[in-house]
UniProtKB/TrEMBL annotation:
GO molecular function: (2E,6E)-farnesyl diphosphate synthase activity; dimethylallyltranstransferase activity; metal ion binding
Membrane-spanning residues: none
UniProt-listed Pfam families: polyprenyl_synt
GO CC annotation, single: cytoplasm
Protein name: Farnesyl pyrophosphate synthase
GO biological process: farnesyl diphosphate biosynthetic process; pheromone biosynthetic process
Keyword Metal-binding tagged: yes
Organism listed in the record: Ornithodoros moubata (Soft tick)
Pathway(s) per entry: Pheromone biosynthesis
Cofactor or coenzyme needed: Mg(2+)
This protein's UniProt keywords: Magnesium, Metal-binding, Transferase
Family: Belongs to the FPP/GGPP synthase family.
Length: 431
């Protein structure tokens, strides 16, 4: 979407008023091709205070719909004051990780298992702590926002430990996923199975990480009433993800041309719900609720509905970044096109393309290597169909739909704030 003339003039006045002319110009310049991201970048640069930014933007003529991303992006000061742990590198988070490493690898000295403990420490340190930690922080933020102020400190360490359990689960999935997809880069470093001396031992290492999840839970929550709820939640998330991965791989079986007739909205949504949304959003938010002492099934069911919708938006964003994101920021090279993945872009393209485009798509999709002729031919079709603009429209509409859900009454008044914190963490990402 192009920058509106009247809004540009308003922003010129805004630049003069705030004295950050160059910074705002830079913000717009980097994001000129994307209205929502450009708006977000400029607003974030202009103000750190949510209310003044949004009020100024509304005065500039920005509609409520266009402001939806900023509502998630800029949390109020009250929310920030409520959080004892705000950042994924805060001391309680780091201490919880070191406790997990120690508990899982200590006490083996002087026995043949000492070599195993050393290896597992390497597995942990290479694969677990180097992500964005969004899932971990979703647990910690949920716990803090839903707990009574007087008892907030009591289970803060436990919330961090449970959050790290999701990062363990994530690392287990990613190791296996890289092997299955033959991906060579993960988080800006070589995939674990490609590291010298690892190879297919990485399969066993992934099993270690999966088992570590439940060992950590037993060690730290085993004597609490919430233990069974958490174990069942993690088991459900694990199984759902495996189901989603299976359906994803069946959509583009190795050595076989993908059956594009199966690239439907329904199939895509089913893959996303199982493979991504459940363990990335349902699991951390509901886990944080359990740690905060909220176990009411009806509240958990309502939370799950919204979390799944956020998870769908997250995966659509992920698919978009795989094609249009910067590999340097992503930490990996996008391969959805050459892998023949049932991605949001592929599904939408198949709905929009004409017969000639469809023939070209079939001739190149799921073939070649990143950056070469097959991928470029498919990207050319995506560009011709206006999928960048379609994605921007989807993003804005989805923000509005989620915001509408959050405006209705909730069993706990802080649950909408929980969701906004989660949205804020993911929707500004470039990786």
């Amino acid at each position: 979407m192009l920058l509106r003339p009247f809004l540009l003039q308003s922003w010129k006045r805004k630049i003069t008023e705030t004295g950050v002319q160059e910074k705002l110009r830079t913000a717009w310049g980097h994001e000129r091709g994307n209205w929502v991201r450009g708006l977000r970048a400029a607003a974030t640069t202009a103000h750190s205070c949510r209310s003044s930014s949004l009020v100024s933007l509304k005065k500039a003529g920005v509609t409520d719909t266009e402001l939806q991303p900023l509502r998630f992006e800029m949390p109020g000061q009250m929310t920030q004051n409520r959080l004892l742990v705000r950042h994924p590198t805060d001391e309680p988070v780091e201490k919880a990780y070191q406790k997990i490493v120690s508990d899982l690898t200590s006490g083996r000295q002087g026995s043949p298992m000492a070599a195993v403990a050393k290896t597992f420490r390497q597995v942990l340190d290479y694969n677990v702590p180097h992500g964005k930690r969004n899932r971990l922080m979703a647990v910690v933020h949920t716990y803090q926002l839903l707990s009574d102020k007087e008892t907030l400190q009591d289970n803060l360490e436990l919330a961090c430990l449970v959050g790290w359990c999701i990062e363990l689960l994530q690392a287990y999935f990613l190791i296996a996923d890289d092997i299955m997809d033959k991906s060579t880069m993960r988080r800006g470093r070589p995939s674990w199975y490609t590291v010298e001396g690892v190879g297919l031992r990485a399969i066993n290492d992934s099993f270690f990480l999966q088992g570590a999840v439940f060992k950590v839970l037993r060690q730290n929550v085993g004597n609490l009433v919430v233990h069974q709820d958490l174990v069942e939640l993690f088991l459900d998330a694990n199984f759902a993800t495996v189901e989603g991965q299976c359906l994803d791989m069946l959509s583009n079986p190795e050595g076989v041309v993908p059956d594009l007739s199966q690239f439907t909205d329904e199939r895509y949504s089913t893959i996303v719900q199982h493979k991504t949304a459940y363990y990335s959003f349902v699991l951390p938010i509901r886990a944080g609720m359990y740690v905060a002492g909220i176990s009411d099934p009806d509240q958990h069911a309502e939370v799950e509905k919204v979390a799944l919708k956020i998870g769908h938006a997250f995966q659509v964003q992920d698919d978009f970044l795989d094609c249009y994101g910067d590999p340097v920021h992503l930490g990996k090279i996008g391969t959805d096109i050459v892998d023949g993945k049932c991605s949001w872009l592929a599904v939408k393209a198949l709905q929009l393309m004409d017969n000639n485009q469809c023939e070209t798509f079939k001739a190149h999709f799921g073939r070649g290597k990143p950056g070469e002729v097959d991928e470029l031919a498919v990207k050319a079709i995506y560009n011709k169909l206006g999928l960048v603009e379609l994605y921007n429209t989807y993003e804005t509409r989805t923000f509005q739909e989620i915001e509408d859900l959050l405006e209705r009454p909730w069993g706990h008044s802080s649950l909408p704030t929980v969701f906004r914190e989660v949205m804020r963490a993911i929707l500004k990402r470039t990786k």
